[in-house]
Records
---
Amino acid sequence: MPNTLLLTIGLLAGGLALGTLIAFAQVYGCRPLRWFCRIYEQVFRGIPILVLIMIFHSGLARSFSILLPAFASALIALALRSAAYQSQIFRGAIQSVSEGQMLAARALGMTKIQAIRNVILPQAFRLAIPPWTNEFSSVLKDTSIASAISVLELFKQSGLIYTRLYVIRGAHWALIILMLVALIYLALTYVGNAALGVLENRLRIPGFEMRGKVER
Amino acid sequence: MDADRVHGLSETILRVEDLHKTYDGNHVLRGVSLSMLRGETKVIIGPSGTGKSTLLRCINQLSIPDRGRVWLGNKEITSKKENINCIRAEIGFVFQDFNLFTHLNALANVRLGPMKVKGMKKAEATKLAVMELERVGLADKASAYPSELSGGQQQRVSIARALAMFPQLMLFDEPTSALDPELIGEVLEVMVSLAKDGMTMLVVTHEMGFARSVSDEIIFMESGNILEQGPPGEFFTSPKEARTRAFLSKITELYGE
């Protein structure tokens, strides 16, 4: 379980940083940059997750003798993939901030960067929380795929336990252990969503609930 | 005020020379020139789509003109050598649809420019913001968010936001056009008192009452050109151009005297 949490947090953080950058580049960047980001985002959203992880783990090792520890390859592959998805969340959020906000900031004498940091980002961030909550739930469960390259996370551990119990105690133990694992994923997702819900409420500002409100 | 005494009242604040702008093959500005002295209020009128708003945006470079030059005082805004952000900080801009920062309350809206652009300390900027909100009669709404304010109140906050930068020149782009009729008065009142305080103002508006009573000069624009300009008395009683007369009679029909 520690590895599952570490993977989730690491890939979300990496994906958040890279995804935000890509989103801003896609909206405000020069044409070649926008073009590059579009390709990146398409590629990483278009490759199956298992293939992606294998590329970073076995593929690179075999072809270029770049030998990454399994955990690191899983983290990088999942973070790059999540960045592509998160970039689309933030791009949508940035684009739903009205154009007049940027104009007003520039008219005051702010540079483009200042306007993004002080005006666009705080608004886009609030609009992005609900879809970002969805991405969190998604990647938390996706970390189970890291078991394919023997990262000892929640799912892999459960596998080790139930194969042992299967031998000693009988076949029905497999189901019991798997149900238990499912329950743990469910609990983690629930807790994470609840925490993000609290954050969303904390940052709520009159005028924003019109666009971003989720009925609970 | 000190500047007035040193340079005299006839100091030119704004000079626009032969401004051209094309949008999607549409020649919106066709060589507009004008100038403003410190403390003057000029009103630009004319049919919609004649480039009035574009002219204002080309002055502070929110829209980059294709040709022509603009000076603020002795600094050429259109020159590549000038830092456009520094110059914009000296020109207040009031938008038709206010464009208050929606995630900030009224006080923070007014405070943001001085803090981020001029590097003013938060406490000092807060004091200034309260003062500017008082000036537009909204000190009691300091903690209200834009969505909690009426259109007229939002526009007054946006005027306070511009004033907090101590601009040399204020540009108003149809400041009352998005407002319900009963809210127009409070915004015009603020603008009238600004003009009386000696602020240099260039105003695009359809409010003929304001134009008549406050402005030093009316500028009539059509199809990207200045067709006629003059002091309001002359302009309204004996317009020279047939098209100005046609526009004025149409406006009178619509809005009354």
---
Amino acid sequence: MIGALPLPAPLETADVQRALLACVAVGAFAPTIGAFLVQKRLSLIGDGVGHVAFAGVGLGLLVDVWPVWTALAFAVGGAVGLELLRAKRRVAGDLALALFFYAGIALGVVFAAKAGDLDLETLPYLFGDPLRMSTGGLAAVLVVGAIVAVAIWSLRRVLFAVVSDEGWARVEGLPVDTLGVGLAALTAAVIVSGMKVVGLLLMAALMVLPVASAQLLARSFRQTVWLAALIGASSAFVGVIVGQVLHLSISGSIVLVAAAVFAVVSMARRTLPAAVKSAA
Amino acid sequence: MAEPRVAVDVPLLSAQGIFAGYGREPVIEDVSLEIRPGEFVALVGPNGSGKSTLLHVLLGSIEPSAGSVRLFGESPDRFHARWRLGFVPQRPTLESEVPATVREIVSSGRLRQRGWWRRQSDADRTAIEHAISSVGLSEVADGPLNELSVGQQQRAFIARAFASEPDLLVLDEPIAGIDRASQRRFRESLVHLQREHGAGVLLVSHELSAVADVIDRVIVLKRRVLFDGSPAELASSGVSLGIHEDDLPLWLEGLR
């Protein structure tokens, strides 16, 4: 374990510092990928993948395998399967998501109950528990974050082209299906990496809420991505401190801060549209 | 100016005896057509005449039940130089609320040509600038698309198709509901692409008055090809493309 850095309260302990770093990292990279999902009109896919990952958690508890691995396998399988069904137009997007939501969560409950763990054991996976994050867990979060950042940065133009206008991209011969599957797999990895930080269910919120705020302020797609990462990271920072000072759930506080940012931005945008525009 | 990339005797696009449909009843029957380099062809027909089905067959996104299609001499699934084909789809706006600038949209059109994994080169940037200025959007290039008029948005999507400097441009109903000024700009940019690059143009539209004087051939489709010839020949059968702008749509509706 690395010793604690000399930071003021409430950040003085190593536990809180690890939690802060993990939350800020997840807060930055989740909305980065989220911006592409929103542009693809799949803002709810994170939620669907989170529910499917819970089935993996349940199976891991049942067969006594580290639940992160089983959650990752389920999440990647579910996200890629969903993308293939959607691209082949076999199922309408939102109906396919609904199917995954319900089948995933039900399967998770069945597995976890069978394992006798449907109690406090499962809650941290759903709603996060950043204060009990190990150094190894933190390292895993940072590695996934770095992979997402590199992948998004190097593919940004073609990903933008494909998520903005899929029909056109197909005619142009861009690798629509490959990129769709890649984006789905990356989404699954991001959701699972945030599982022990803010939880499977709140991770999806962190992917989308900062993007919703950023798109109201930004003037380009590029700005939207950067601003969403900034808003996500700041919401996480403020959320950790608010949670510690007021003795509230950290993951809940982070998402509430992100929601409050959206409320303030959209109200300001409505009342002062001219000012926001000229400032941008 | 660049050397022509296509031998003049190979059609950019050809279709032989195409049958296609979704159920038992074919939507199009025995359609044959050809577009050669530098040719400006308009495809017209009443609503439900199979124009859109035919277009998808020609672009390779629908498999015909009979007949064959050749893009630049190759079957659509083997045609990999896709950047040589510029496509302007019917839907003129981005569906998402996320802002995107004209330049971001137009840059997408250049990806296939340079290899989407490569960095943007100076030549790419020049081509993108040129495409934006040819549709008259230079002044709003860095502003969000969703703050522009429908006509300006449509021009941005045309510029996206121009950015790859295509040899064949296919446009699906690009002028429906856009303002006069945008229509004029639209005409100028098509003529520019056709004359400067020797590109072929296939325009699917109801409204041809804006481009009537530059059309080489008109193909009238109603399940089958009813007419394939010059505007002058069509005029001799009593239908004009330009003088009264309602002539063509009215006549087409009469065919239903």
